[in-house]
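Hi U.,

Before I forget, here's the chain from the pilot set. I'm dumping it here mostly so it's searchable later in email.
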Amino acid sequence: MKKLKELMADYEVQQGFVYDYKRNVWYRCEPDKENCLEDSYSTVIRHKLENMLDIGIEF
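Structure:
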């Protein structure tokens, strides 16, 4: 998650997400929070990423 936080800072990204395929868990990271949360909800787009992938929404 350290690398994700570095990239978020470099590109001024508000939220970053990582999906752990082995554990089937999403992580949401925010620059002002020390730890990442087990969550796929984006406050930026107001949707859960896991739901968007399940129904096949394309970006």
